[in-house]
Write a structure and sequence with these properties.
Strand order of the largest sheet: 1-2-4-3
Order of helices and strands: HEHHEEEHHEHHHEEE
Largest sheet: 4 strands, mixed
Strand content: 5-15%
Shape: elongated
Distance between the termini: 62 Å
Number of helices: 8
Number of strands: 8
Helix content: 40-55%
Radius of gyration: 26 Å
Length: 308
């Protein structure tokens, strides 16, 4: 098979025709300040829109509308996507976004992937948010820039402990439900001061190392851990009859003097196939393998009686 030729971007148009320059001045430049104000207000920091019409128009075809229409379309698409992103990820999303886009700048440029590029996509390079268009699709699908493009671009460059997807899942799934979960497990075990330790940082690091080519799990990271505790352990404690059974409650209390239930990822299970409970050094561990992450969560803790 012949080696694919690397894509070479076109040189910018040296001088645009007068009619195009006038169109840009009258119908795009006149809106630019308002665009920058809208973006700045959404993100809480001063932003600039820095798009080169000469660079973009090098890819114009007879199918393209006016230059101002194309330029406005990309900025309108960005603002639409940004609103969707902020609506979903809220203040945490803005914090991640502003830390990633250090230059507080928007631009549009051709995608260097050439024929392999998507019609439209986005990334963050050198602190600048870049809308990327396929070389033969200038002006196409400009309103496709929804929140998924934004979070993907942010997570690709974030230096935070967790990706934004994972952080959002922790907040919306775990943090909003953990108090009720702790109360219910405490009641079942007659252990009101039970400690639930999701061990987020270690689990996240272990999964990230094991799933280098897959980040889909991050979207449901907090949801999955909540499910192992609630739909797995809590369910099986109830099924085994711990609630209101003094003997069972005392047996677990003796085996777990730390009153701690901790989640972890392990390379291999002792007896389970997808997940299992294990008691070590006075701690009740809920453990899973990366290969079977977020599967058969209702099995978690079904071996609890065998541990006592």
């Amino acid at each position: 098979m012949a080696k694919k030729t690397a894509f070479t971007p076109k040189a910018p148009v040296e001088k645009l025709p007068l009619a195009i320059r006038k169109d840009i001045r009258d119908n795009y430049d006149s809106k630019k300040e308002d665009y920058e104000t809208q973006i700045s207000e959404l993100l809480g920091t001063k932003w600039v829109v820095n798009i080169s019409p000469q660079e973009l128009w090098a890819y114009a075809t007879d199918n393209n509308s006016t230059a101002s229409y194309v330029l406005n379309g990309y900025v309108d698409g960005f603002i639409y996507g940004l609103k969707s992103f902020i609506e979903n990820y809220e203040e945490e999303g803005k914090t991640y976004f502003n830390k990633a886009v250090t230059q507080s700048e928007l631009t549009v440029t051709v995608n260097p992937k050439g024929d392999d590029a998507e019609t439209i996509s986005a990334d963050i390079k050198d602190g600048v948010f870049r809308i990327l268009f396929k070389h033969d699709k200038l002006g196409y699908n400009q309103n496709w820039l929804d929140k998924t493009y934004f979070v993907k671009a942010v997570d690709a460059v974030t230096e935070e402990t967790f990706s934004l997807k994972a952080k959002s899942s922790i907040e919306k799934a775990w943090e909003e439900n953990v108090d009720d979960l702790k109360k219910e497990i405490g009641e079942v075990l007659a252990m009101p001061d039970v400690i639930l330790d999701p061990n987020f940082e270690e689990v996240y690091a272990a999964l990230k190392a094991a799933k280098k080519d897959d980040d889909d799990w991050q979207t449901s990271f907090g949801t999955a851990i909540l499910a192992y505790f609630r739909d797995g352990l809590l369910y099986n404690l109830k099924y085994a009859g711990f609630k209101d059974d003094d003997m069972l409650q005392e047996g677990l209390a003796e085996a777990v003097p730390s009153k701690t239930i901790k989640f972890r990822v392990v390379k291999a299970l002792k007896k389970g196939t997808r997940n299992e409970a294990e008691i070590e050094d006075g701690v009740l561990y809920l453990q899973v393998k990366p290969e079977t992450w977020y599967s058969n969560v209702s099995d978690m803790g079904d071996n609890i009686m065998k541990l006592l």
